[in-house]
Amino acid sequence: LRKLHADTGDEILKNPLLNLWFSYVEKLKQDPNELLYMKLKTQVGDAGFVKALVAARRDLSAQGLFDALRKAQLNNWVRAGSSVDDIYNLLKLNKEGDKIFESPMFGTWTSYAMKLDKANADELLFSVMKKHYSAESLENMIIQAKDRVTTKNIASKLEEELWRNQGKTADDVFDILKLEKKGDGIFEDPALSTWISYVNKLNKHKETPEKFAVISELEEHFQRMDLARMLYDAKREAKTRDVKQLVSDLQDEQFEKWMAEDLNPIIIGVLVESTDRKHPSNLGVTLDYHDFVSARTKSE
Fold first, then answer.
1. Could you tell me if 128 and 100 are in contact, meaning their C-beta atoms sit under 8 angstroms apart?
2. d(CA 264, CA 131)
3. Helices 282-299/241-260 angle, 10° precision
4. Residue 141 — very low, low, confident or very high, per pLDDT cuts 50/70/90?
5. Is residue 299 scored above 90 in pLDDT?
6. What is the gyration radius of the CA atoms in the chain, in angstroms?
7. CA quadruple 245, 249, 251, 252: dihedral, nearest 10
8. CB-based burial, 163-184: b 16+ in 10 Å, e otherwise
């Protein structure tokens, strides 16, 4: 144990005696993660602790310790009342320039934002980043970060927040993502999920959010009954489970909207026939809606 305490940084995290020390501390009814974090923080600071964690990640993950030690650090910051801005500076991310997404500190900073407000972590991060980078620089950095597996998801969320700060509408982003050129193949395009996410983000920030925001926006681009036929066909022809689920969710939202508008299956049957009498999917749309209404009526 004396040898363990003599180590510093990633040396202590890779020490084979670490598990033994954890067991000993737990028997003393103390939190070994908290004690180890405080020891390393004293030796190398918070940034040094993150570097040590990353350097020893493989060894720590194998022992189930990586997440626990990171949690100890995040909890300490929460107790101290640290803001996302505070931690940005503490981890010296302000020194990273346009390489911030490549920094080993970035993942910890992102985790802290999620701990403070998981639903709006991207907005917390962006509120800090926009103080240090121009919109053009952020756009270029985000494009590069979307190409890396480790930063793809958060970069996509930051891109949406960048669009929102630039005042981009749902229609603007529909055009940016070139979805108007996809036709019936729109539901197979991964960009549609990005657009849906952005529509929901914009809707969340409205004074009175709309219940059917996504389907209402889609109906601005495709005539209502054309969209219904497209969804029916796409659900039957979906190439992956994820696409089928996406289309099913959109169809459910459209059907819920119809029910809210007091459109019964008979009316829908008339409307779908009147817009394209010979379309082979007309009956399928009507029957799907009939089944949907029946299921909802029974559940009520």
1. no
2. 52
3. 70
4. very high
5. no
6. 26
7. 130
8. bbeeebebeebbeebebeeeee
Angle at the Cα of 197 from the Cα atoms of 193 and 198, rounded to 5 degrees: 120
10 pLDDT tier (thresholds 50, 70, 90): low
Distance between CA 192 and CA 18 in Å, rounded? 48
CB of 161 closer than 8 Å to CB of 130: no
Structure letter (DSSP) for residue 57 = H
Domain limits, the chain: 1-81, 82-167, 205-300
Least confident of 47-61, 109-123, 129-143: 47-61
Report the phi/psi class of residue 45: left, alpha or beta, with left for phi > 0 and alpha for psi in -120 to 50. Answer: left
| pLDDT per residue as tens digits for the range 149-195 | 999 999 999 999 999 999 999 999 999 999 999 988 999 999 999 99
Amino acid at 12: I
The model carries a pTM of 0.87
DSSP state of 97: G
pLDDT digit string (tens) for 230-246?
Answer: 999 999 999 999 999 99
Per-position b or e across 54-74, b if 16+ CB within 10 A of its CB: bbbbebbeeeebbebbbebbb
Separation of alpha carbons 230 and 193, rounded Å: 16
CB 35 within 8 A of CB 42: no
